[in-house]
Amino acid sequence: MNSPIKKIMVFIDGSEQSITAAQFALCIGKFTGADITAFYVINTKALDDLLKARIFLKEEQLEYGHDLEEDAKRYLNHVREIAREKGINIETKSVMGSVHQEVVKAVKEEGVDLLVIGELSRIRSRRDEFYDENERAMRAVPCSVLIVKNEDNVWEHFNALE
User: Fold this and answer.
1) pLDDT tens-digit series, residues 80-95
2) N or C, which end of the chain has less CB nearby within 10 Å?
3) What is the pLDDT of residues 15-56, one digit of tens each?
4) What is the pTM of this model?
């Protein structure tokens, strides 16, 4: 029987939870033979909102945007390196835009079978729930979604990979 999972996308957002999700996606990819893509969205929507709210000046927005691009490179390089150490191929990709829109678009365009994300942050209010970009993406994608929890368990499985 062929694996139902041929393409995995792991969403990286710079959090420890997303790195744990990447480790678990690598474990799944190793056992299923699926292609894996680490995907990072530089959240320009949030930058635009900060500018509109007059929290940022245009120059500050550009500078902060550059910092976010560098963060994306750094996190994707880290994921590429941990994959290389385990002998697993991974593609990395970053885009700019609204998180949930870009994740949904990439999942559809690339024919992803499984989206892997880190544990969602604790919701403090209904408003937070409505505006949580990760949760919106999780609910809108047309594929199965795996929310990775239990960092210690993931770490144990990841370390056991040969």
Assistant:
1) 999 999 999 999 999 9
2) N
3) 999 999 999 999 999 999 999 999 999 887 665 565 556 665
4) 0.85
| Total domains, the chain | 1
Kindly state whether residue 123 falls inside one of the protein's structural domains.
yes
pLDDT reading at 122 higher than 70: no
**Is residue 2 one of the residues assigned to a domain?**
no
The CATH number of the domain holding residue 146 is 3.40.50.620
DSSP letters for the chain: ---S--EEEEEE-SSHHHHHHHHHHHHHHHHH--EEEEEEEEEHHHHHHHHHTTSS-HHHHHHHHHHHHHHHHHHHHHHHHHHHHTT---EEEEEEE-HHHHHHHHHHHHT-SEEEEEPPPPP-SHHHHHH-HHHHHHHH-SSEEEEE--HHHHHHHHHH--
Residue 138 lies inside a defined structural domain of this protein: yes
Across the chain, mean pLDDT equals 86
**Considering the domain boundaries, does residue 91 fall inside one?**
yes
The domain of 19 spans 7-160
In angstroms, the first-to-last Cα distance of the chain is: 24
